[in-house]
Structure formats: structure tokens, C-alpha cells
Amino acid sequence: MRHIAIIGSGPAGYYTAEAAQKRWEDDVRIDIFDMLPVPYGLIRTGVAPDHQSIKGVSRRYEKTALSDNVRFVGNVCVGRDVTIAELQQSYDAVVLATGAPNDRPLGIPGAELGNVFGSAAFVGWYNGHPQFADLDPNLSGRHAVVIGMGNVALDVARILAKTEGEFAGADIVTHALDALRASRLQTITIVGRRGPHQIMMTPKELGELAQLERASPRVDRDDLPDEGEDALLEPGLRKSVAHLRSFAAIPESVHADKPIEIAFDMFASPHELLGDGSVRAIRLERTTVEAGRARGTGEFYDIPADLVVSCIGYRTSPIPEVPFDERAGCFANDEGRILPGIYCVGWARRGPSGTIGTNRPDGFGVVEKIAEDIDSGALGRAERKGRAGFDALASERGLDIVTFRDWKKIEEAEEQAAREGAPREKFVDIAAMIKARG
Ligand code: NAP
Questions:
Q1: Measured between alpha carbons, how far apart are the two ends of the chain, in Å?
Q2: Same structural domain for residues 96 and 115?
Q3: How many A from CA of 201 to the centre of ligand 1?
Q4: Taking phi first (over 0 means left), then psi (-120 to 50 degrees means alpha), and beta for anything else, what does residue 124 get?
Q5: Residues 69 and 217 reside in one and the same domain
Q6: Which range marks the domain in which residue 321 is found?
Q7: What is the CATH number of the domain that holds 119?
Q8: pLDDT-based confidence at 350, cuts 50/70/90?
Q9: 237 lines ligand 1 (CB under 6 A)
């Protein structure tokens, strides 16, 4: 029997479990740990609340979760409640699927001012992550600045721009919906240090900006390269650039009809945040792009900013004793191998890139490595106790484990508490989640 511990119940974790099941069928037992009492990681707290179809992938994970040889072990924080070394005593392989939950720091003066947030915190706030439920951003100003030109920047800009009606069917938490209802924002500026040909935004998501009820996207024609140059782009990026071109062609009369403008400020690198206690403006340096890299021109200008959300990527949380690659912001690894018996997968392996589906081949890849190491004897030949070993430790420590069956009760309570038309009202507090399991 093989015993595998997977740390993290997001897409990378569940795809790894699925791969291990396919590989060893009845000869494997898999425990999936999560520090929260609820599963699915990024699907629950990262994917935008108005993108419910993407969240539907959790049904596939549920199928894996309900198999006899897979177990969800919620409310256990590895590194705090139990160490990796302790897990190694019970499991043949420990797979870190912990994602990248921390913001890459902006690293400019003023980043500590009030009403400046990283996207992990801001997205966590509107998605009901217990760590960020109390963020309480101030949306009473007129001007928001969103830094970065990836899909997370798009999510944040779109959520800030939507009307209450546009959240019908979304599982945005009520505290965020209430705050957005009272928002007085008039401009949302998306700041990018490079140009249209270097955006990381995918076409479907970018196109949504043109469909918003009360907001219209604005692109400066002068920022766009000659149209002929688009032919060299890969097809997805070419489509995204076509959206930017269509935004640049939106007539002033349409902008005038919409109370919120989502303006793209490209070739602009954040230099400093200005304010007194709370942020009031951002100082940007005009850039040019040379050989694909942004170069400062020495020309600076300020734009008003009452709220700043920086969406410039994420870092994995280090775990004591596990080698970490500070530059890449993820575990130091060789194709998923960290140390004998310790592996990583998904964003914890390769950094925060790719779609949810990218994690599936990742999961299958790491299971192949584990299989090679088990077969070669690299992990030792001693039979491990697996979940029985962990359970003994957990009861010794008095850990309050949340099972998948408990989660189903929490889920039912969330569904019952949903606003009309919404799929669920998430608990945003760990104690409330635990209470809801009955
Ligand atoms: P991303 O796609 O890597 O975009 C990060 C952006 O931040 C880039 O435009 C980057 O510019 C910019 N940036 C980085 N450092 C900066 C700095 N110091 N100053 C200014 N700008 C800076 O990351 P993401 O948006 O966080 O998304 C993470 C992953 O999740 C991506 O794979 C994304 O596609 C995925 N995602 C998908 C969806 C969806 O499919 N609906 C939704 C959300 C996220 P440079 O390019 O110049 O470095």
C-alpha cells in the first residue's frame, strides 16, 4: 500500500489525488490536508465570484474526494499543527500543493499607506477568505488604480465596476456586495509597465470589460502599435490586442453614458504612492519597451488614487525545513522533487501561472516522479502507517479535524443562507464554519 499526503485542497491537490488513484487504484491511500475547514483552495477563494462556470470544476474534485481511498483532512495547518517531518513518518510521499497565497510586494515607497492592497488580500476579501474578511477597503473615493495587466487585474477592475444587478448568480460575499453598492468610484485605471503586445490578459476575460452595464473601457490609440504588427502575435494574444483596439474605438458618446471609466494606462511603471495616512495618488514613470523589457524614460507624472490594488503576482508561503527559491517565490525543486519523499505541484512548484487546467498534467507529472522513487527504493522499503499514523498524532495533539462529510454539512448551510439567485453565502469565519458542521 502507498500512503500519500497532499497538502492543499485546491486544483493542484485534487488533480494529484486523481492521478495517484489512476496510477495505483486500490493500492493507495491519499489524505488531502487543508488549513481551512473547507476544500478547493483557489476555486473557492481565488476564482472571481461572477465566474461560476469556472468554479464548476469543483464537481470533478468532489468525485475524487468521495472515493474510498481519498480523505479530506481540513482545519489542519501543516508546519504549525504537524510538521513535514512528522508526516513523513506516516506517508511515503508528502506533496505540497499549497499554491501561492501571498502577494508579491510592490516594493515602492508608500506601499504601506492605507487603502493600498495586494490582490491576494483584495480578492480574498470579496471571496470571503477568513484571513481577509475584515479588510474593509474604503470605496468612498473617486479613483481606483489597479496595477498589473494580467487576469487578476481584470477580475479586480471588473468586480469594482459591476452593479449589484450584475452580481446576480455570483457568490460574492455580502460584506463585499454591501461595500460595492456604496462605492463612489468613477475611474478605475489599470496600470501596465509594458504595452499592448505584452499584456497577460486572456481574450474572453478582457472582452467582458466591454459588456459592463455602467462602465466602459478606454484605451489611448497612441499606445497601440501598427495593426500589421499584430500578425506576429500568438492567436490568443492577438485576440486580446484586438479587444484593446476595439476599446480604443469606443465613441465618446458611449463613455459619456457610463458613469465609470476603466482606463488603461500603459507604458507606465509605478514609482511611488503618495498620501498622508491613506493613499491619494500614484507617481508613475513613463516607459518604453526595448527587447520586450520596460525601460524608464525619466518622465514622471501623478494620477489620483484613493484605492490601489496591486495585481502583480503571488508567492508561495515557505514551510520550515523545506528548501525555498526566494527569487521564484516557490519551493526549490527539480521537476517537482524537493527532497526525498517531499514533492511540490502546481503554483507551489512552478509559480503563479497558467490556467486551472494546467495543474492537471502537473499532478500526473508529480505522481510519475513519486512512482519512480517508490519503485527504485529511493523512499525506503519500510511499510508506513499512513492515515492511522497521522490519526494517532492528531488525537494526541487534540486536533479538531474537519472531514469531507463535515464539509458537506457546511456547504449545505452555505447554500441555505444564499441570497436569492446566488449559489451560496460563504462563511467568512473559521469558527462559524466549524459550528455549521453540527
Ligand atoms: P500575471 O498574468 O503574471 O500578470 C501579472 C502582471 O503584473 C503583469 O502584467 C506584469 O507585468 C505585472 N507586474 C509584475 N510585477 C510588476 C511590477 N513590479 N510593477 C508593475 N507591474 C508588474 O499574474 P496574475 O494576473 O496574478 O495571474 C496569475 C495567473 O492566474 C495567470 O496565469 C492568470 O492567467 C491566472 N488567472 C486566470 C483567470 C481566468 O482565467 N479567468 C483569472 C485570474 C487569474 P510584466 O508582464 O511587465 O511583468
A1: 34
A2: no
A3: 8
A4: alpha
A5: no
A6: 2-101+316-436
A7: 3.50.50.60
A8: very high
A9: no
